[in-house]
Design goal:
11 helices; alpha/beta; Rossmann fold; seven-stranded parallel beta sheet
């Protein structure tokens, strides 16, 4: 295990995951440069500006001249910058391709062979899984959205470059300084805490889930165990959280008893993902999650007490 301080570039460092991960990296003693375009006007890194090992750069991850300067002295790069989610990518299809895939390809061309890359993929690459069969890292990738396709293509570029780890993230939930409400658990808990009700479309569809702090923990684990883990993708999710939307609502109701949900007999969910996922590979590599869904729901209830009335989303 390597716990040596590193110089790390995080693109999208002020985003939903980046705002949590950047803090963790600094806590671990690393020197961190966060690149972000601050498109949402967020101030999620404001308290880090006093940290001597923190640098922040306002810019675009597609700016090759800027990237060339920023990667010059870095030991590792974590390219989080992306247009995340099917709705946002469908609204800006050119941006989805140029940010999610082309910027990653450009970044890889600027790196020396010795510089490490840790990249967040998405379980959405699995698309629609076989009924009752777990998706492993060896399962065929079958993305059904432009978002999923661009992420799959970027992961392929990174793994072919080498000296890299990719994390295929389950649906992320939990509080972040750059909060998002348009993620399934975050959305349902918000509705439960505010409206006390939600209407579900295609409630039997299943997916896997992971808390945002456990995502950050996976990146830290990858940095510290890079030589043993490099060259492979890793699913990152909760083994006991391959849940349908209905099952998720039942868990929320245990925390918020007044919550009611209805499954609509008509209408469709535009996000057709439906799969169950095995996370055994990363568990075998020594990573363990700290957060259950129930614990995360309790956190989100407190979060929405603070954020009440303020929309936070990508789409």
């Amino acid at each position: 295990m390597n716990k040596q301080p590193m110089r790390i570039l995080v693109t999208g460092g002020a985003g939903y995951i980046g705002s949590v991960l950047t803090r963790r990296l600094l806590e671990e003693g690393h020197r961190v440069t966060a690149l972000d375009n601050f498109i949402y006007g967020q101030n999620s890194l404001l308290d880090l500006c006093a940290h001597e090992d923190f640098e922040v750069v306002r810019g675009d991850c597609r700016d090759e001249a800027l990237l060339k300067r920023l990667v010059r002295d870095k030991d590792a790069v974590i390219p989080l910058a992306a247009l995340v989610g099917a709705p946002l990518c469908d609204r800006d299809r050119i941006g989805a391709v140029t940010v999610n895939r082309d910027a990653v390809k450009s970044l890889c061309s600027l790196l020396s062979p010795g510089q490490r890359v840790l990249y967040p993929m998405s379980n959405s690459g699995y698309g629609i899984g076989e009924q009752g069969k777990f998706c492993t890292e060896d399962s065929p990738l079958n993305p059904i959205s432009l978002y999923g396709r661009t992420k799959v293509e970027a992961e392929r570029i990174i793994l072919e470059r080498g000296n890299a780890i990719t994390f295929r993230l389950a649906t992320v939930f939990g509080a972040s300084p750059r909060m998002r409400l348009d993620l399934l658990v975050n959305d349902f808990v918000y509705r439960a805490a505010t409206d006390r009700a939600v209407v579900i479309f295609e409630g039997r569809f299943k997916r896997n889930y992971i808390h945002i702090r456990d995502v950050a923990k996976a990146f830290i684990h990858g940095l510290e165990n890079f030589e043993e883990m490099k060259g492979r993708p890793y699913n990152v999710g909760l083994e006991d959280a391959n849940l349908s939307k209905i099952e998720l609502c039942e868990l929320i109701r245990k925390v918020i008893p007044e919550f009611v949900y209805f499954e609509s007999p008509v209408g469709r969910d535009p996000d057709k993902r439906d799969y169950i996922v095995s996370n055994q590979r990363i568990l075998a590599a020594g990573w363990r999650p700290d957060w259950t869904i129930e614990r995360g729901i309790g956190e989100l209830v407190k979060c929405y007490t603070v954020l009440s009335g303020h929309p936070h989303a990508n789409a």
